[in-house]
Amino acid sequence: MSVIDVHSHVFPRFTRAEGRILAGAGEPWLRVGGDGAGMMMSGDEEYRPVDPGLWEPARRLADMDASGVDVQAVSSTPLMFGYGAEPSRAADWCDLVNERILAFCADAPDRLLPLCQVPLQDPALACEVATRAAAAGHRGVHIGNHVGDRNLDDPGITGFLVHCAELGLPVLAHPWDMLGAERMRGHMLPWLSGMPAETQLSILGLMLSGAFERIPESLRLCFCHGGGSFAFLLGRADNAWHQRDIVRADSPRPPSEYTRRFHVDSAVFDPRALRLLVEVMGTERVMLGTDYPFPLGEKEPGAAIRSCPGLDDAGRALLLGGNARAFFAAEPAARPAAQPSPDPAGAGLILEGRTT
């Protein structure tokens, strides 16, 4: 049984000078002390202490071995998005980030699956960067769930999602820059309350705006953190759609009919919550996600899946790896046909009938 983690992060060792590409927009870089401890930096400000698994491939692979993870999809840390920067600067930054992620994954191309990032504040430029990244070997794209006050159902961002569908490039959507932060002071409340709300907002926005009607069904889209509060509140959304014409004004179908259009990861931590998530989404639409290596992630990868009531062995196998293998199976169309595949996620993710 293959174990594939679709939700893990990386922060390559960017210098302070490299971070200045994003002049005035966070300027992310990594400070590593003589004792090996790291600190994510935003300009001159300390953002968060971090462990070497975030930037050292050898440490990450050792952690994967110790926890029984065969393959990780590797995506940038949201602090690195650069959505507040001038678009051309952001595009240069994304190209640099994407190069570093490819280099990071090259240490174990059979186990580390690179996902690119894009300057989503300029959807046309984001399409160009995604196309370049797919040609270079990235197997998916990692995006934030909004850009300022523009949600994923914004026409420009929806156009970018259409482009990803045409490329055959899977999309991992991650909550960030949480709404209501001024009311969530202390105790990591933006992460505990804001992140689920952000993800719920993104999913409902795509459903109720009619965006899913404009996006090809071929798009492979996954929301992190179990889709946030979405599964628990789906009944409320369906009830509202049936009762109020203002809710269904732009959506020809109730929200529950769109669950087949996306995936979610399993990062809900409670087997009872996971059972509800599987009942809402189906066993084919949930994939293992740990949020490695951050402290709020699942410390024992797949623990909730293995103890989830109502899941049989076949269902557990799908959640632990089978669904992710299918999600990342097809190579992006932008890769030149004559270029040999680097197979960064292992042969089992590309060829049917072969295991990781």
Describe the protein in words.
This protein has helices spanning 16-19, 57-67, 87-105, 123-136, 155-167, 189-208, 211-214, 230-243, 271-281, 303-306, 313-327; strands at residues 4-10, 28-32, 38-42, 45-50, 71-76, 112-116, 140-144, 146-147, 150-151, 171-174, 221-223, 263-265, 286-287. It has a single domain (4-10, 55-349), classed as Alpha-Beta Barrel (TIM Barrel). Strand 2 (28-32) and strand 3 (38-42) form a beta hairpin. An 8-stranded parallel β-sheet has the order 1-5-6-7-10-11-12-13. The chain has a 3-stranded antiparallel β-sheet with strand order 2-3-4. With 356 residues, the protein is of the alpha/beta class. Residues 334-356 have low confidence and may be disordered. The chain is built from 11 helices and 13 strands.
Strands side by side in the biggest sheet: 1-5-6-7-10-11-12-13
**Straight-line N-to-C gap:** 9 Å
**CATH topology-level fold name:** TIM Barrel
| Number of helices in the DSSP assignment | 11
Mean pLDDT: 91
Helix content: 25-40%
Radius of gyration: 19 Å
The name of the CATH superfamily reads Metal-dependent hydrolases
User: From the coordinates shown, what is the CATH architecture?
Assistant: Alpha-Beta Barrel
Q: State the shape.
A: globular
Count of domains: 1
CATH class: Alpha Beta
**How many strand segments?**
13
Q: Give the helix/strand class.
A: alpha/beta
**Unreliable parts:** 334-356
Topology pattern, helix = H, strand = E: EHEEEHEHEHEEEHEHHEHEHEHH
Question: What is the strand content?
Answer: 15-25%
Organism: Actinomadura rubrisoli
Pathway: Secondary metabolite metabolism; quinolate metabolism
GO molecular function, one term: hydrolase activity
EC number: 4.1.1.45
